[in-house]
Structure formats: structure tokens, C-alpha cells
Backbone:
């Protein structure tokens, strides 16, 4: 199971990024091993419009099975929805904490 | 000649200045470019003689032809298209679209057709005239931006006539469009912290155009705008006093030039000052 999460830094002790489209970076983490499979700086930070849509595409193409973020806009939502991938509301501070919370079924699914 | 009236903060007096000038200047047109909330008609009370729908072009994707290659989305400068090949899904976000047509141009499968989408209206009318001298853009509710209508109105205007353009408030794309067509810019400002703050932002846009510009101070009292005026080396075209009586007449939809001789003269002074800064002379109606 691979998790896509918005990140402020390149290790698991970094805070997750509360922004989706304009997050500093993105991470794909393998749940079982807690290995960081991918770390990607957000290249679309300076785009004027539609960064949520681009981020949604990055999330889909990252190969992750689920997405964890703090709130997600309606446009990004509609891009992800069609793929059937589930989105969960992040709770916690560091990426590690957020993922632990997911493991312990503490995160709620975002559906709209 | 096109005189555009801008502000920054809303409610500083753009429409007050624009409607009074349009009525006072000989054979002038009033053009309402505040398409989200056009209200010049409340003061000029024109007879509307023609209403035209205003259309933009948006893409229509034929999913029978689309192979989800993503070339359209990659070329869209505004990220208005999202193509997800893994699930054969093409999404179009209309409010991000700027109607450039690049998606249909680059599509190798000829799967994108541009179609008309009505976003509002341009209305034509007359006040105090046998000929059309009132033009008004109206944006439909729920539309993301009125910029296309403002650009559409700009294309209707010629060099020969005098147009008074009532711009939208703020410092956004619609304002830039309204300023683009101007030969002369009037910055309406009020002596409040908010008014000065937003006026300074608008001034940044004006300075970038190198167009002649002057300031009309509305709701003028003894509050000090000297530092703002001097720091920015601005020409003061005129002052409209802060008086309860003016607000009362305004609330009834009356024009200030019809209120008394002093106010009429204040607007004549504005025209004279524009003439000093501009090569083409504008004439006003004698009473």
C-alpha cells in the first residue's frame, strides 16, 4: 500500500503540508516498510491557475493507492474521484504521525 | 478619445465622476465596463435600444475521438484541462479557460471543437440624444471573469469620438483591460486610509502604462492627501466635496452637475484640467 502525502521536507519527521496545490513537496511512502519511495519538489508553485488540478494529476501518476491531504479543492477532487483513489483528511503534525494515524484508522475519508 | 475612470477601492466615486462627465461633455459616450455591477444606468437613465449576447469560445471534447494523449492539457497555459490516461478521463474546467483555442489547435485527433458560450450581454442605449451614446457590459451571474466582455466593448470604440469609460474597482485583469483602451486615465480617490492604500496599488498599474493621468478627489474634506499627491507627483484634476446633500441626491440617482452651479463648475474644471494634460481638446455643453 503506497501513500501520497503533501510534505514540507524530505524526511518522515517533516511536517506534512497543509496546502494541497501549493504544497512545498510531495512524498510517496510505502506503508508496510515506512520507506520513502518518492520525494518530489512541487514544480508548479508559481503557476497562476489550476495548481490543484496539476497536483491531483501528480498524485494519480505517482502510483500511490491512497492520498492524504488537508482539505482538497473541488477541482482537484473531481480529477481524483474518477480514478477511484481514496482521499483521507490528514491529522497530526509530522508525516510519520499522520501515517501512523492512518494505520490506526484515525483518519476520515474525504468524499466531497 | 477614451477617458477611463479607475479607483482601487470600490465606492470612491468612479460612476459619479463618469456619469457626470459623460453628460457634461459634448457628444460623449458613457461606457460601463464595471460588468459585474454596472450601475451607470441608474444615473443616466438611458433608453436601451439593443441588447446583444456576448459569447466566448470554449472547447467541446468528443470522447469518441479522444485518445487521452494529454497534449491539450499540456499546452493549456491555464490548466483548464485535465486528462487522465489510466482511466480514459478528460475533464474541462470552464472557469479556468481563457478561450485561446490552443487545445483544439494542438489536438492530433481532431477531437476538440470550439463552441460558443454566452457569458453576458452588451447593451446599447441613448440618454439626451437621438443616437446611441450609452454602452454597458453585463456579466452573467456565476461567470468567473468579465475580462472578455470588457475587451469586446473596447473593440467597438473608435478614435474619433469621446468615450467616458467607467472601470471596475480593484487591481485585477478586468481593470487592466479597461485601462488598456484608455488615452487618458482618471484615478478617483477618497481621503480614507483604505482609499489611499488601494489607490496606490492602482497607481502602480497606471504608471506601467505611461498614459497621461490625473486624480479626482471625491468626498474631499480637510483630510490631508498632500503626501500621497506629492510623493506620486500627481495632477489634481478636481475635488468633489464631502457633503450630506450630495449623498442624498446620489441616493436618488441624481447627477451632481444638475444639483447646483458650484458642482457643475467643479466638473467643468475637471474637463479643463484634462485638456491641459492632453493634446485633444474636449468641449462641454453650455447651460
Residues:
Amino acid at each position: 500500500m503506497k501513500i501520497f502525502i503533501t510534505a514540507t521536507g524530505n524526511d518522515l519527521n517533516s511536517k506534512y503540508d497543509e496546502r494541497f496545490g501549493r504544497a512545498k513537496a510531495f512524498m510517496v511512502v510505502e506503508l508496510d516498510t515506512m520507506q520513502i519511495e518518492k520525494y518530489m519538489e512541487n514544480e508548479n508553485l508559481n503557476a497562476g491557475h489550476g495548481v490543484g488540478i496539476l497536483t491531483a494529476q501528480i498524485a494519480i501518476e505517482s502510483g500511490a493507492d491512497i492520498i492524504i491531504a488537508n482539505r482538497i479543492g473541488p477541482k482537484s477532487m473531481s480529477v481524483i474521484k474518477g480514478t477511484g483513489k481514496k482521499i483521507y483528511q490528514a491529522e497530526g503534525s509530522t508525516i510519520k504521525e499522520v501515517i501512523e494515524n492512518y494505520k490506526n484508522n484515525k483518519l476520515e475519508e474525504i468524499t466531497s | 478619445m477614451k477617458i477611463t475612470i479607475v479607483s482601487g477601492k470600490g465606492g470612491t466615486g468612479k460612476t459619479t465622476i463618469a456619469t457626470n462627465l459623460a453628460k457634461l461633455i459634448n457628444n460623449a459616450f458613457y461606457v460601463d465596463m464595471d460588468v459585474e455591477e454596472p450601475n451607470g444606468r441608474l444615473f443616466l437613465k438611458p433608453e436601451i435600444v439593443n441588447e446583444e449576447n456576448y459569447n466566448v469560445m470554449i472547447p467541446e471534447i468528443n470522447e469518441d475521438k479522444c485518445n487521452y494523449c494529454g497534449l491539450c492539457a499540456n499546452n493549456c497555459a491555464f490548466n483548464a484541462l485535465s486528462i487522465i490516461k489510466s482511466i480514459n478521463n478528460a475533464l474541462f474546467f470552464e472557469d479556468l479557460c481563457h478561450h485561446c483555442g490552443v487545445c483544439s489547435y494542438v489536438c492530433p485527433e481532431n477531437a476538440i471543437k470550439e463552441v460558443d458560450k454566452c457569458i453576458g450581454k452588451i447593451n446599447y442605449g441613448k440618454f439626451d440624444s437621438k443616437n446611441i451614446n450609452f454602452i454597458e457590459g453585463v456579466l452573467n451571474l456565476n461567470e468567473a471573469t468579465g475580462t472578455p466582455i470588457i475587451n469586446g466593448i473596447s473593440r467597438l470604440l473608435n478614435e474619433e469620438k469621446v468615450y467616458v469609460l467607467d472601470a471596475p474597482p480593484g487591481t485585477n485583469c478586468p481593470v487592466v483591460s479597461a485601462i488598456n483602451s484608455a488615452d487618458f486615465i482618471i484615478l478617483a480617490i477618497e481621503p480614507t486610509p483604505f482609499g489611499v492604500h488601494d489607490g496606490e496599488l492602482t497607481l502602480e498599474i497606471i504608471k506601467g502604462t505611461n498614459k497621461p493621468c490625473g486624480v479626482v478627489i471625491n468626498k474631499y474634506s480637510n483630510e490631508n492627501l498632500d503626501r500621497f499627491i506629492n510623493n506620486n507627483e500627481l495632477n489634481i484634476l478636481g475635488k468633489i466635496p464631502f457633503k450630506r446633500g450630495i449623498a442624498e441626491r446620489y441616493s436618488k440617482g441624481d447627477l451632481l452637475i444638475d444639483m447646483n452651479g458650484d458642482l457643475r463648475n467643479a466638473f467643468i474644471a475637471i474637463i479643463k484640467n484634462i485638456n491641459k494634460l492632453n493634446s485633444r481638446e474636449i468641449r462641454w455643453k453650455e447651460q
About this structure: Chain A has a mean pLDDT of 94.
